[in-house]
Amino acid sequence: MELPGLGEHCSERTCKQLDFLPLKCDACGEVFCKDHIRYDDHKCSSAYKKNVQVPVCPLCNAPVPVQKGEIPDIVVGAHMDKDCKYNPAQQKQRIFTNKCLKPGCKRKEMMKVVCEQCGGNFCIKHRHPLDHDCKGSSHPTSKAGYAALMRASQTAFKSTGEIGVPSNGSLQHNRCR
Q: Which long-range contacts (CB under 8 A, 24 or more apart) does 119-126 make?
């Protein structure tokens, strides 16, 4: 028992299958089954309208426009000879260029991490004045710096039994400098 009012027949000459979920080709507008919907499967005469691929220059990564009937390899070759904006100096730009100034540390960071006291550039691990044995100015530290000094002195007290005082001698607290 067939249901003649439902579905459509595949437009491919060799198929003509009754499909209840037919697919319409976006290039030629014909109706096809799932086996013949691709441009190559039904030899679509209008495929050039939709199946457009733009070659990319291998040197500068720019899209190279190709007119209908032109061979993409020849057009890309002409682009490379005349219009290519390739610059070999830009090919290898270094990202991690900020070397840590702590002696013995070879780490590099993407961004500068500058110490507020000595002005040196350090990695994330050595960014705090206590971590890189800062020899900068002895002006009062920030709230976070003061907390770090207190933690350092407490750990020194627990390990040695003596009260640890920072090398700059200042335990002053300065709010929001």
A: 125/100, 126/100, 126/102
